[in-house]
Amino acid sequence: YVLATLALSDTVSLTNNMIKTGKALERVAKILPINTSRIYTGGKNSGARYASLTPIFLKGIQGIISINASIVNTELLNAKKPFHYLGVVKEDSYVYTEMLGTQKVLNRYKFPNQVLIMDQKENDLATPYLKKAMQIFTLSAMGRGWTKKDSAYIENSYKKDVLKVNQLKAKGQLILAEQYLKELFSIYGIHKNLDSLRGVQRTLSKDRTFKAVKRAENSTFFKESLLKEDYAYYMDEDVRTHNFNNLGWWNHQMNEIDKFINGPNIHEKKMGNRLRGYVNALAEDTIDLVNSEEFVDEDALAFLYMLKTLTAPEDFEYYLNIISLSAKNEDFGTSLFYLEEAFKNGFKDTEKLYSLENTALLRINPKFNSLVAKYLKEARYEINEE
């Protein structure tokens, strides 16, 4: 495989980025003797969401590797223009259930697809999973006649995959074993008889322990979907009505999520992590939406910045944002409150603090300098309470 990367910009249109991507692919094809029937795109998070659009808008892209992201809009899919979707995700990622849902849609469209669930504490760009993704593309290309068929390669890959299923079962990771086993049918069905694998699948599906954990997972998924609906509804409502009084409710929800994360139920632990990620992503997307308007609703932004200090208390960007926005409107009480909250949570970057936009008047406020002196031991300006 040849890896080619290009710099894209969030500040230009999707159309211009697609044109740039198309031209880059053309340049690579002119420079190197690549197999043009085996061009794939990929990315992580927002990069993966962009990658999922490339086979829809550009010709010749046969598949995508999507790390921690589902397809942006499944309504854009065209059954006459299929591509190979390969997702990589952790069980506690907020997009986990969404990616499983995307897989069902792709199955209806008969798009080749697999979702690899990470079962180790690795980062989302873990080499084994990228290596596996490219191996799957190679096996698919062999089945389609796009590259020479290598029987030894296929058999060796198959044995390793069956071994992994058995290892997952031995470790009691039955849901992961079932998901991985299911993917093997779509990977190897074109290459060999899989009757023995079907026997393994039937045995697993009848296993009492597997049935119990699957029921527990499905029950958790249902609870999660209801909570997500609540969060989406109340965030939209609170932003539109500038309902600062509801921040207490949001704080309570974060405490409830922490109970899931710290509790003994493994399914609820994962659900708690997914819910926290979901609320944070929803808030960030809403901030982007508010900022994209011709006339920015500063009260809505203030609410969202305050909300982010609850959902991500160690992300100091949002404390600084609300400090700056409040100081701009001469609401120094709010600025000072969030300044102290930031200090309590470990903020120490004085350079960033003293260069913060709209805070010239705030920085000469005696209470501001008292807080700086209290938490950072030194203030730039003399403290005078008179």
Summed up, what is this model?
The protein has helices at residues 14-31, 46-51, 54-57, 96-109, 127-144, 151-170, 174-188, 195-206, 208-241, 247-262, 266-292, 298-311, 317-328, 332-344, 350-354, 360-363, 366-376, and strands at 39-44, 61-67, 84-90, 113-118. Helices cover 63% and strands 7% of the residues. α6 packs antiparallel against α7.
Features:
386 residues; alpha/beta; four-stranded parallel sheet; 63% helix
Write the layout of secondary structure elements.
Elements: H1 14-31, E1 39-44, H2 46-51, H3 54-57, E2 61-67, E3 84-90, H4 96-109, E4 113-118, H5 127-144, H6 151-170, H7 174-188, H8 195-206, H9 208-241, H10 247-262, H11 266-292, H12 298-311, H13 317-328, H14 332-344, H15 350-354, H16 360-363, H17 366-376
Parallel strand pairs: 1-2, 2-3, 3-4
Characterization of this structure:
- 63% of the residues lie in helices and 7% in strands.
- It is built from 17 helices and four strands.
Count of individual beta strands: 4
The helix content is 55-70%
Helix and strand run: HEHHEEHEHHHHHHHHHHHHH
Task: Report, as a whole number of angstroms, the end-to-end distance.
Answer: 70 Å
Global shape = globular
% residues in beta strands = 5-15%
Rg:
25 Å
Describe the strand arrangement of the main beta sheet, using strand numbers: 1-2-3-4
